[in-house]
Design a protein that fits this description.
200 residues, mainly alpha, Actin-binding Protein, T-fimbrin, domain 1, CH_dom
């Protein structure tokens, strides 16, 4: 981890492709949201991928963010008084954020791995997780979201329909087009391949 040297060959190509997915405009929007959600005491990062990573690396800002989405009195992540300085404590703080984000409703496929943030392996994945968290917060509309609701897309919500018994019976009389039809295309006149050649 600490003695990681420069990447060469294919691993450098892979890393450069991952780094190209990072979105600077999205970073600005996420920083604005985190500051609006947590308050100005979280500070602001230096612009750029590395500054964003350093700002979030110890997990405290992320923990404050996820805690701010819950009503007061039910905070899922314990935040230490002094920011953790030991590596494993920082990684543990990030892991607590990830667990809380998953409990909040973020899908596992949208959640980054701890090393993606801690070692800056995939900061685009960190952005995806924060976007998913913001989208959920806007969709829940429970009063705990702060900031511009237009920063995130609302997730699709279930729209349950209730049918009466007579409507369900009427539906059984209709033959859907998925069942097939006896009109339209047929195989009449089609031939496959060349006919067999008989030479005598």
């Amino acid at each position: 981890m600490a003695n990681k040297g420069p990447a060469y060959g294919m691993s450098r190509d892979v890393q450069s492709k991952i780094e190209k997915k990072y979105d600077d405009e999205l970073e600005d929007r996420l920083v604005e949201w985190i500051v609006a959600q947590c308050g100005a005491d979280v500070g602001r990062p230096e612009r750029g991928r590395l500054g964003f990573q350093v700002w979030l690396k110890n997990g405290v800002v992320l923990s404050k963010l996820v805690n701010s989405l819950y009503p007061s009195g039910s905070k899922p992540v314990k935040i230490p008084d002094a920011p953790p300085t030991m590596v494993f404590k920082q990684m543990e703080q990030i892991a607590q954020f990830l667990k809380a984000a998953e409990d909040y409703g973020v899908v596992k496929t949208d959640i980054f791995q701890t090393v993606d943030l801690f070692e800056a392996k995939d900061m685009a994945a960190v952005q995806r997780t924060l976007m998913a968290l913001g989208s959920l917060a806007v969709t829940k509309n429970d009063g705990n979201y702060h900031g511009d609701p237009n920063w995130f897309m609302k997730k699709a919500q279930e729209h349950k329909r209730e049918f009466t018994e007579s409507q369900l019976k009427e539906g059984k009389n209709i033959i859907g087009l998925q069942m097939g039809t006896n009109k339209g295309a047929s195989q009449a006149g089609m031939s496959y391949g060349r006919p067999r050649q008989i030479i005598s």
